[in-house]
Amino acid sequence: MAGKEPLVITGKDEMRQWSRSARAKGKTIGLVPTMGYLHEGHLSLIQESHKHADLTVVSIYVNPGQFSPNEDLSTYPSDFLGDVEKLKGVPGGVDVVFHPRNLYEYGQNDGVKKGENGVNREEGKVVSCLENSGVRHETWIRVERLENGLCGKSRPVFFRGVATIVTKLFNIVEPDVAVFGKKDYQQWKIIKRMVRDLDFGIKVIGGDLVRDTDGLAESSRNVNLSPEERVKALSISKSLFNAKLAAETGKVNCKELKDSVIRAIHEAGGKVDYAEIVDQESLEYLEEIKHPAVFCVAAWFGNVRLLDNMEISV
């Protein structure tokens, strides 16, 4: 019922104890991982969790391991109390909000040196905000092929950070089901592949992308758009819809479809990070759409990087 007050848990051991107690009573657990500043897209994932599990845990944690030092970790929006109020309004409610302070806190720091500008000077490698802060965390999960391309090109530490924090959450919450939004299409596929390859006993569900009434894909970062930038950013969804319609009426040349989207975004004043049409399963780039594909776009409007995608079947 609406208005249910979720239990807020901050400790790893307390979270594990709750999950194991629930499972001992025969309950199944769904996990919806988030970084907070919840919107309708997140709330739809909770509704999806209700279809597959008896109890639902929502994690709220902004993960420094997936941000490079030159990215927007420090400005990522946050409103924990507002998030809890939104969760109380979800039909069916949420059972637990897992809100840890720091999932990379292991006790005594062993004195690793900080990098500068995201570069580990000993190895010459790009590192995350986590390593740049001097935290001693050495174990990373990589899904080597699927993380290449799309977001992986311009965000080299992103997917190893995502895969690692999701693994940590899986080990702490011990869910039966985990629900991820398909707006982050590559992320969803990477988590599915990781679960398959590492034999996690967890079913990964993809929740449909949710759009605002004007067509813009729901994102926590949308709050950082100015009113003018938001209007211009609608060029992403509009051009994707047009490309989908064109493909479904026989125009299946990927270069032509990509050029039309890139042109629309540029004309609106945006900067395209990538616009690619890939196979829905392998995420391999396509030259022509002959089977289920997904058109993935990342573009900048002002200082805000936005993601969107459109599944296409011909």
Structural commentary:
The chain is of the alpha/beta class and 314 residues long. Helices cover 34% and strands 19% of the residues. It is built from 9 helices and 11 strands. The protein has a 6-stranded parallel beta sheet, with helices on both faces. Belongs to the pantothenate synthetase family. It catalyses: (R)-pantoate + beta-alanine + ATP = (R)-pantothenate + AMP + diphosphate + H(+).
Structure summary:
The protein is of the alpha/beta class and 314 residues long. The chain has 9 helices and 11 strands.
Per-chain topology:
Layout: E1 7-9, H1 12-24, E2 29-34, H2 40-52, E3 55-60, H3 80-88, E4 96-98, E5 119-120, E6 125-126, H4 129-132, H5 151-154, H6 158-173, E7 177-181, H7 185-197, E8 203-207, H8 227-248, H9 254-267, E9 271-279, E10 293-301, E11 304-312
Parallel strand pairs: 1-4, 2-3, 2-7, 3-4, 7-8
Antiparallel strand pairs: 5-6, 9-10, 10-11
